[in-house]
Amino acid sequence: MSLSNKQQGVIKGMGSAMLMSIVVISAAILYDPFHYSNISQISQKLAVLGLSLVLPTLFLIASIGRLAKYRFFSPEDIDGSGLSSATTEAVVLQSLLQNTLEQLVITYGVYTAWCLLMPVAWLSAVPLCSILFAVGRILFFKGYRQGAPARAFGFALTFYSTVLLFIVLVVYQVVVGIY
Q1: What is the CATH number of the domain that holds 26?
Q2: Model pLDDT for residues 122-171, shown as the tens digit of each residue
Q3: How many domains are contained in the chain?
Q4: How many other C-beta atoms can be found within 10 angstroms of the C-beta atom of residue 166?
Q5: Is residue 179 packed enough to be buried (19+ CB in 10 Å), middle (13-18) or exposed (0-12)?
Q6: Residue 49 lies in domain
């Protein structure tokens, strides 16, 4: 079975994002670049979590704002897609919003579990993945209209950085145990 050019482009974007996510998470775990190994209180772990959720949340706010602004200035879309047939632009903005919301739900759960359950010396992975989330969203937004290959790296960078954290979290809990 041969893959189309689009499929090959998506695979390249996904593979590159996976590799980048592995490198960043591994570096965070091995080198503790933010020196979180000194953290001793739960309030400090929660502060890392809170700060790490700021960037991903910003992208949800921006997505909602972009769609709301567009709808306000679009006579065809001002009533919302539930009451009218959405224009192509409104559909694109809604798709960006929907995908960002989906990614953010996963991110909130994984970042929270990581900050509460993983060794403090590994906490640097969360803010670094937050940065990957932001970079991924920017690239996904920029590439969306050019099709799947153009948005694949951005999507995958957002997704894989969170999924890899989750996999490491689960494996660590199974191998080392919670208690």
Answers
A1: 1.20.120.550
A2: 999 999 999 999 999 999 999 999 999 999 999 999 999 999 999 999 99
A3: 1
A4: 16
A5: exposed
A6: 5-33+41-177
